[in-house]
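Quick board copy: two proteins, each given as sequence then tokens.
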Amino acid sequence: MASLRGLGYLASQLARSPRQLKHIAKWIRARSGSPVEQRLPWLPFDVINLLEANVSPDSKVFEFGGGGSTMWFSDRVGTVVTVEHDPTWAQSLIAATDGNPRTNILVHDDSDGYANYVEAIRAFPDEYFDVIVVDGRERVRCTAEAAAKVRPGGLLLLDDSERPRYAGAHNLLAGWPSQVITGLAPFKPQAGTTTVWRRPE
């Protein structure tokens, strides 16, 4: 059952964006579980729908920061590479993926100022990934590293992109077509905002 606070939030979201009405049932259901249990990204539902339309069983995905999105991608794409800074959380993700051979979870902690975390994607060729999700530590630095690794026509996502400290990421990708998507998101008590860039062909 949604809380009074949750219902108040829901009403305010619908007043601002009636299109979000279509996501109400999913949003309420998601409040009773965790992203990993429900195998859902912690992203606005409209972003999840966009991803659904842009991935296939052959897609290659890289994530800076894992969770429900790792589960979601592992059910849909050919390769998921996730870098995590928290070894305990990484182990829980490995257990949740149950040895799925399509999923590779890398652990790089903060002992070096997150340098190995940020640079983990350098192990892959340029233009290798179809989708890259930046949703962990050092997001501006990760966006800078990710730009060359997403294929032309591929997607680069920055979650919580409205935060002022991530303005540098927007500057880095100023020439790329983008969508700023704000709306109901599973597990969040407030609107989620994600920017989705498509690398120019």
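And the next:
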Amino acid sequence: EKGLFYALDLGGTNFRVLRVQLGGKEGRVVKQECDEISIPAHLMTGTSQELFDFIAAALAKFVASEGEDFHLLEGRQRELGFTFSFPVKQSSIASGTLIKWTKGFSIDETVGADVVAELSSALDRQGLDMKVTALVNDTIGTLAGGRYDDNDVVAAVILGTGTNAAYVERANAIPKWHGLLPKSGDMVINMEWGNFRSSHLPLTEFDQALDAESLNPGEQIYEKLISGMYLGEIVRRVLLKMTEEASLFGDDIPPKLKIPFILR
């Protein structure tokens, strides 16, 4: 691969934008730049247009800062790879409908909508001449990135705002697979293991209370046990109980300790 390419990684309370100049087999990655932007809390539960307009505006600003070291091939439109780390039903390489939000997002109108179409419309409103050429889950993107440098890479794990994993499986071992097998004989499986639930998972009273008060009770249980979105809140709940029952901080309870998700 040669040329200038952009990437957008949306999967938690922050999103990242990246540009990379690829030099082919010899040059590989010539240069890359990245920026990270925090998503205001109100946009995580607002409207679809507000969220994607905010993202598109940040991306447009990032594109405007493109330096002379980056070269778009003549006659080529800027291309964007879109990493979207939420459950989707993918219908093609560059389209997929949102099944449900996770990780603190709750925007009902986006559920069932094509997230690439939502982003593309926002890019158009910004006047940004850019085409979304691929939609991938963050685990798939991580696995592909690792495989780019080392063909022996067979799995990827995400431990961030949320958690997930992907691995390479033999296509003939996939019960859900129908149709012709890929030439390689392999398929990458997105596990969505954040939604894993088992009687063997040790749920404490703090885990159960957090889940009951969450935006999606009964879902993403494993994610709520180990991911960055929730670990601070579990610690806060433990500290609050210790303060109430054992005067951990003296006779007075620190007011901020009563604020949900104050520890991040």
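Board note added afterward: Residues 205-258 form one domain.
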